[in-house]
C-alpha cells in the first residue's frame, strides 16, 4: 500500500466513496466515447436518461466493432458511479400559495359566492395541458453540475375537467392540439 499511496490517494480523491474496489472498466474504449458524448450533450443542456445512455453505449459499441458488448443497466450504474453522474431535475419553478390564504378564501370569499345555490348547482372546473411532445424534466448529470434546460415543447392538448360539488357528473372536454405561446 505504501508503494501505491499516490495512486490510492488519487483514486480516493477522484472516485465516489461507494466504490469498494478500484477496477478499470472492461470496455474502456466504449466508456471513453460515451463520456465524451455525455459531456457534449450536457454542455448543450440536453436531458439524458438512463435508457438513452444505455442505447448510446450500444450504438458506440457497434461503431467500434464490439459485437460481444450488450450494455446492461448494471454497466450504466457502474459507469455513472465511476464518473459521479447523478439524476437531477432540469428546471423547476416553485409557485406556492400559503395555507392561510387558502383557508381565508374558503371562509370568506367562497361562502359569499355559493350563497343561494345547492351543491348540485355548484361546479368546479379546471383546465390542464397535456404536453405530448414534452421532454423529461430530469436528466443525468455530473455531481455538482447545475442543470439548466433549453426551450421545452409547447405542443399540447387542452383538457377541461369539471365536476359538481356532489360529484354526480363529470365532463371531459378535449380541444385540438395547439401550440402554446409564451
TrEMBL record:
<dbReference type="InterPro" id="IPR006600">
    <property type="entry name" value="HTH_CenpB_DNA-bd_dom"/>
</dbReference>
<dbReference type="InterPro" id="IPR009057">
    <property type="entry name" value="Homeodomain-like_sf"/>
</dbReference>
<dbReference type="Pfam" id="PF03221">
    <property type="entry name" value="HTH_Tnp_Tc5"/>
</dbReference>
<dbReference type="GO" id="GO:0005634">
    <property type="term" value="C:nucleus"/>
</dbReference>
<feature type="domain" description="HTH CENPB-type">
    <location>
        <begin position="18"/>
        <end position="89"/>
    </location>
</feature>
<protein>
    <submittedName>
        <fullName>(African queen) hypothetical protein</fullName>
    </submittedName>
</protein>
<dbReference type="InterPro" id="IPR050863">
    <property type="entry name" value="CenT-Element_Derived"/>
</dbReference>
<keyword id="KW-0238">DNA-binding</keyword>
<dbReference type="GO" id="GO:0003677">
    <property type="term" value="F:DNA binding"/>
</dbReference>
Amino acid at each position: 500500500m505504501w508503494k501505491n499511496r499516490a495512486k490510492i490517494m488519487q483514486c480516493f480523491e477522484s472516485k465516489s466513496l461507494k466504490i469498494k474496489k478500484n477496477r478499470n472498466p472492461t470496455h474502456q474504449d466504449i466508456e471513453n466515447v460515451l463520456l465524451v458524448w455525455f459531456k457534449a450533450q450536457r454542455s448543450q443542456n440536453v436531458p439524458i436518461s438512463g435508457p438513452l445512455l444505455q442505447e448510446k453505449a450500444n450504438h458506440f459499441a457497434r461503431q467500434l466493432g464490439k459485437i460481444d458488448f450488450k450494455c446492461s443497466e448494471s454497466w450504466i450504474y457502474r459507469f455513472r458511479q465511476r464518473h459521479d453522474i447523478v439524476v437531477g431535475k432540469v428546471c423547476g419553478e416553485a409557485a406556492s400559495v400559503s395555507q392561510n390564504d387558502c383557508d381565508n378564501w374558503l371562509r370568506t370569499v367562497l361562502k359569499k359566492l355559493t350563497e343561494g345555490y345547492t351543491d348540485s348547482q355548484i361546479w368546479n372546473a379546471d383546465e390542464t395541458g397535456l404536453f405530448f411532445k414534452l421532454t423529461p424534466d430530469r436528466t443525468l448529470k455530473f455531481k455538482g453540475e447545475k442543470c439548466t434546460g433549453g426551450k421545452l415543447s409547447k405542443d399540447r392538448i387542452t383538457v377541461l375537467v369539471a365536476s359538481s360539488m356532489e360529484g354526480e357528473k363529470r365532463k371531459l372536454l378535449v380541444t385540438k392540439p395547439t401550440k402554446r405561446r409564451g
